[in-house]
Amino acid sequence: MPFPTARIPDPPPPSARLRFRRWTRCDADRLAYFRLMADPAVMTFIDPTRRFASVPDIDAFLANDPPFDDHGYGFWLVEWRDTGEAIGTIGMKAKPHYGWTEFGYLFKRAFWGQGVATEAVAAVLQWADAAGVSPLYARVLPDHTPSVRVLQRAGFEFVRVGPPEDDFDHVYIRQANQSNTFSG
Fold first, then answer.
1. Could you read off the pLDDT of 30-57 as tens digits, one per residue?
2. Structural domains in the chain plus CATH codes
3. What are the CA-CA distances from residue 110 to residues 36, 140, 179 (Å)?
4. Under a CB-based contact definition with an 8 Å cutoff, are residues 69 and 93 in contact?
5. CB-side exposure of 29: number of CA atoms within 13 Å?
6. With bands split at pLDDT 50, 70 and 90, how would you rate the model's confidence at 180?
7. Closest by alpha carbon to 37, among 108, 100, 127?
8. Which of 55-59, 67-71, 103-107, 146-150 has the weakest average pLDDT?
9. Second label for 39, Cα 20 to 30 Å away, from 2, 86, 90, 166?
C-alpha cells in the first residue's frame, strides 16, 4: 500500500498557545525528548514496558525510528508558544508493518488536562488535511479515556481492536476533512 506524501511543507502553523517544529539532534532537543519519554506516567499510555534510562538510549531509539521519513511528515516537537518550552510531540508516520499512516501524540504530565492535546491535534489535522495525508490511524489504550475523547472529537472513529502483537490497543481511523466538534 503506498503511503500519502505531503503536498505542502511542514511544520503546521502555530496555534493559539503552541508552536510546532522538527526535532533536531541538538543537546536541548535530545534532553527534552529524553525527559518526556523517561516519565513512567507518560509512557504508560504509549508503551508500558519501554523505559529510557539515558539520552544515549533516546539516540539509539531515534536512529532506528527517525522522527521524519520520506513522505514529508513525521513527529514534530511541540513548544509552548510564550516560552519556547518543549512540552511534547505530535505527528504522523508511515508504518509499513501495519500498512497505514499512524497519528499520535504525547505531552509532559504538567500539561495534561489543559486542552493542549485538543489544540495540538486540531492544528496538526488541519495541516494533514491540507497536505493530503489521509487516512490516519491512531492506536490508543481503551482505558485512556482522555485520549479517546480527543480522537473522537477530532473525527476519528473506532475501527477494531489492534493487531495481535498490540492487543492492548484499540484502533481508530480518520479520513481527511472529517467534521469535528473541537471547542477546546
1. 889 889 988 989 988 887 777 788 888 8
2. 18-134 (3.40.630.30)
3. 11, 20, 30
4. yes
5. 16
6. very low
7. 108
8. 67-71
9. 166
Quick one: cell of 6?
Answer: 505531503
Q: In the predicted model, what is the mean pLDDT of the chain?
A: 86
Based on the number of CB atoms within 10 Å of its own CB, is 131 exposed (0-12), middle (13-18) or buried (19 or more)?
Answer: buried
Task: Give, to the nearest 10 degrees, the angle between helix 27-37 and helix 55-64.
Answer: 90
Alpha-carbon span 68 to 85, nearest angstrom: 21
User: Is residue 78 helix, strand or coil?
Assistant: strand
The letter for the amino acid at 150 is V
Residue pLDDT, tens place only, 130-155: 999 999 999 888 888 999 999 999 99
b/e code 139-163 from CB counts within 10 Å (16+ = b): bbbeebeebbebbebbbbeeeeebe
Place of cell 491512531: 138
d(CA 120, CA 123): 5
Neighbouring-strand partners of residue 89: 77, 106
Residue 93: helix, strand or coil by DSSP? Answer: strand
Rounded percentage of the chain residues whose pLDDT exceeds 90: 43
